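Section 3.1 - Work completed
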Amino acid sequence: MDYEVFILTRIREAYDATGDARHAVTEGLGRTGRLVTSAAAILMLSFLSMSTGPQTDLKILATGLGAGILIDAVVVRCLLVPALVALFGRANWWLPSSLARLLRIPAAAGPAAGLAAGEIAGPQGPRSEADLTVTRAR
């Protein structure tokens, strides 16, 4: 799961910059693909080396774990998740407004198109940086 966070973080950063889900998936996988593939290969090879031991129980466990990591890295992280992110587009980043207020996350997802220079989109709508300075001073 931890490497999935790397992939989705990079995809989200690219989506926030461009607003295009397909480009964001390409950019996110391009920036994290080597890391995830290397980590999966290291884990798979370590379990493969454990499967050469003399105990049958250890061989079965190590082979199963190695196969599971290979399936997870190839099917889930390289095929399934990127395809679903590209398919769902903006719906990937939808967050209910009440939860966004609770977490103090801006409700608007995607690029900050339509905002004037110096404005920040928040749950109450666009606000200028001057408004935020006054709010912080209180």
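Second construct:
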Amino acid sequence: MVHARNFDPALLNDAFIFLFLGYGTNVGLAPLHAWLPDVNSEGPTPISAVLSGLLLNAALYALLRFKILLAANPGAIAPGRLMVTIGLVSVVFAAFMLYRRRDIKRMFAYSSIAQASADLVPAANS
């Protein structure tokens, strides 16, 4: 963290865009969420539980750790508003999808999307 000020801001900005797309897909944020309900409904139940309980949280943690690097560099973008907006859109989308579902595994997937997105909102705002 001490050397984060010395990083090139343009490189950090580009890296954030790619990391946000990659880890955002892994977390299941709204525009990138399409794979998660299919995987949870088709896969075995223990794998779905590990996916939702561990893998999504690890991706969210990595995304928030990189946000700390961006905050330490004064020339880099401030991704807080983007992350809060995507998180809120994901929560609302997952809530509407939960309302319409009757398959328990798909409900679990959309619940995981909503919980990970709800975790993203306050963490991105700080």
